């Protein structure tokens, strides 16, 4: 008999209310996942008890056979999921089943629109967990008691999922958690033995904890003959109940790998690829790493969850062990099981253990190899790149040792396709390099169009030399850590002297020198007219269609990075551009012919235009407009 007391009714946190509302609508066509979520939680609770009991086996309270039980009753339309795992205290129940503790939740929920399909996708990214019970149930009762506690410390939680829940004290003999779902009328299909069994197999074959369901049979006498009209109930294990990563690769099907991914990653959709490795010898570990097909909602959150599920000799130790993968691979999900660490390892101890560093570099290599393999499938890799490319771009700065490997995995937009899709590899670029071309050229701009139409590209287009068009916020940062690829140096076409090396013939170079000489007087006049606004004025052969462009010295921080730093509140030392003039442009010829104030205005207009074309902001835009209008109406 159980008695309840100390009953209180509390409101769900606003975010939970929003989630419940949206989830019930958007996941209607995917209702069966509630069972996966509940089994997943129950298995985690068993894992946690096994871990806690390593130090104190009294926590088992004499029942160390961890298990999950699922029962149903068609008449009362209920499904019960029960575990003898760690259980929860009253405070834990209120926190875990009344709030969402993950940071970024409020912002995430704002993105939901009420549009069923879109929301279903987004919610899948978020992971709905326990709350998914309300997709199929109109009332949920949770009875739980923390392992090792007193039987008087049990708790009963009840809710109809409509904004509030009730918690009460409960006398509970056994530890662990029991969740009773009172199914909605239209979800009665889930109170069916056959349906439940097939769902259990689908979702939990790979979970090590046995999932049992009652089997009712006619009783037999001592000789094995059926006794008519009598029934016995036995518990039958329905899932395979072996940890997936322990099994050998050859006997695991793709579907099993995919199902396991959904359990570890709390994701609804299939992974793009995975890599399962058992390593013996000096460093012993088994790893099963996955690349998700879409980004989790907290990919860019500082404290977003990342890392692998850590097991030591099959005993679960912790979720999100982030010490085993670098930050730029934070999208990789999976499991690491190793004998190299002790069972009582903690997050703090992990930071000091030199073996952790070794495993981290081995897993990093595995993850990069997995991506290299994935890259063979262009379409799948593009999906990966579109979602995680900008995270991988953090790699060269973070992981010096693997720079070349990461560089080979990068994809860019380029003048070869002139499309914003980043789908060109550096190897592709190198293969297309012209005879005599020694460098890999790129341009960085705030957006794809600004990069594509930059005046700096004119000479490259004319000569048919490919230029990478970089337009992600992180790109200049990336390029400041990438110096060469396959021995070819990277060159920013908007910085320093333009040197096309062997691509330019001797005649061309000679002609350029002659022009420069012929325009010396013009250059001097322009520099005098512009004064401190520029550090230098030159004639250029970069341009074919534009009259002028601005360039920075080779080792100066680029304009894009400066703007990002300034936007982040960093004060940047002022840098004056170099103005380069196209000697064969009509406007420059007109400039040459101008005198006095008109000359000064025209020179300033050319400088201002060059700054605008490069994506920069003018100090005094109104003055520019006035000056331009005066020239247009003169
Ligand atoms: N059967 C259970 N036994 C013990 N604790 C549980 C159980 N089910 C849920 N919990 C607790 O409630 C918390 C919230 O569960 P919920 O399923 O909502 O989220 P989650 O499992 O943390 O993450 P996700 O939403 O990604 O599944 C869990 O982290 C766990 O602490």
UniProtKB/TrEMBL annotation:
Residues 1-347 are annotated as: A. Residues 30-187 form the Histidine kinase/HSP90-like ATPase domain. Gene3D superfamilies: 3.30.230.80, 3.40.50.11260, Heat shock protein 90, C-terminal domain, Histidine kinase-like ATPase, C-terminal domain. Residues 348-563 are annotated as: B. Its main location: cytoplasm. The keyword Nucleotide-binding applies. Keywords: ATP-binding, Chaperone, Cytoplasm, Nucleotide-binding, Stress response. Belongs to the heat shock protein 90 family. Molecular chaperone. Has ATPase activity. This is Chaperone protein HtpG. It comes from Billgrantia ethanolica.
């Amino acid at each position: 008999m159980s008695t309840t007391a100390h009953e209180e009714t509390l409101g769900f946190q606003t975010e939970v209310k929003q989630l419940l509302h949206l989830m019930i609508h958007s996941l209607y066509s995917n209702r069966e996942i509630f069972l996966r979520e509940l089994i997943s939680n129950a298995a985690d609770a068993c894992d946690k008890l096994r871990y806690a009991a390593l130090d104190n086996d009294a926590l088992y309270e004499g029942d160390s056979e961890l298990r999950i039980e699922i029962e149903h009753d068609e008449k009362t339309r209920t499904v019960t999921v029960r575990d003898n795992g760690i259980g929860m205290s009253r405070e834990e129940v209120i926190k875990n089943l009344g709030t969402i503790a993950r940071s970024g939740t409020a912002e995430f929920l704002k993105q939901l629109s009420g549009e069923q399909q879109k929301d279903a996708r987004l919610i899948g990214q978020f992971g709905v967990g326990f709350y998914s019970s309300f997709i199929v149930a109109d009332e949920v009762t949770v009875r739980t008691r923390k392992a090792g506690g007193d039987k008087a410390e049990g708790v009963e939680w009840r809710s109809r999922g409509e904004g509030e829940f009730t918690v009460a004290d409960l006398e509970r003999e056994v530890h662990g958690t029991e969740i009773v779902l009172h199914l909605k009328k239209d979800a009665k299909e889930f109170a069916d033995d056959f349906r439940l069994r097939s769902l259990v197999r689908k979702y939990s074959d790979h979970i090590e904890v046995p999932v049992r369901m009652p089997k009712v049979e006619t009783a037999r006498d001592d000789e094995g003959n059926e006794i008519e009209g009598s029934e016995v109930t036995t518990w039958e294990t329905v899932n395979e109940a072996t940890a997936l990563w322990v099994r050998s690769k050859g006997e695991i099907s793709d579907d099993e790998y995919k199902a396991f991914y959904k359990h570890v990653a709390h994701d609804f959709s299939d992974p793009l690829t995975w890599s399962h490795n058992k390593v013996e010898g000096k460093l012993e570990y088994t790893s099963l790493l996955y690349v998700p097909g879409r980004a989790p909602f907290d990919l860019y959150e500082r404290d977003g969850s990342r890392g692998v599920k850590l097991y030591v000799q099959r005993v679960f130790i912790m979720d999100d062990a982030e010490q085993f993968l670098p930050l730029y691979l934070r999208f990789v999900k999976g499991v690491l099981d190793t004998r190299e660490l002790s069972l009582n390892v903690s997050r703090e101890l992990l930071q000091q253990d030199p073996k952790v560093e070794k495993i981290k570099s081995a897993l990093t290599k595995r993850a990069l190899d997995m991506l290299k393999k994935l890259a063979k499938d262009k379409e799948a890799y593009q999906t990966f790149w579109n979602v995680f490319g900008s995270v991988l771009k953090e790699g060269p700065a973070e992981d010096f040792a693997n720079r070349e490997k990461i560089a080979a995995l990068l994809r860019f937009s380029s003048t070869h396709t002139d499309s914003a899709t980043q789908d060109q590899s550096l190897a592709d670029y190198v293969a297309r390099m012209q005879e005599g071309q020694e460098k890999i050229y790129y341009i960085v701009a705030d957006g794809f169009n600004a990069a594509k139409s930059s005046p700096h590209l004119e000479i490259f287009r004319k000569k048919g030399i490919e230029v990478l068009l970089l337009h992600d916020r992180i790109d200049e940062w990336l390029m400041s850590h990438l110096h060469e690829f396959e021995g070819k140096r990277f060159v920013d076409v908007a910085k320093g002297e333009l040197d096309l090396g062997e691509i330019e013939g001797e005649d061309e170079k000679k002609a350029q020198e002659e022009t420069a000489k012929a325009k010396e007087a013009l250059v001097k006049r322009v520099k005098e007219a512009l004064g401190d606004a520029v550090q230098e004025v030159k004639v250029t052969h970069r341009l074919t269609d534009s009259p002028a462009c601005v360039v920075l010295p080779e080792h100066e921080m680029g304009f894009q990075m400066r703007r990002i730093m300034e936007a982040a509140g960093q004060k940047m030392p002022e840098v004056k551009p170099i103005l380069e003039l196209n000697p064969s442009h009509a406007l420059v010829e007109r400039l040459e012919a101008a005198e006095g104030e008109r000359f000064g205005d025209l020179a300033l207009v050319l400088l201002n235009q060059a700054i605008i074309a490069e994506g920069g902001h003018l100090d005094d835009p109104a003055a520019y407009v006035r000056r331009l209008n005066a020239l247009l109406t003169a």
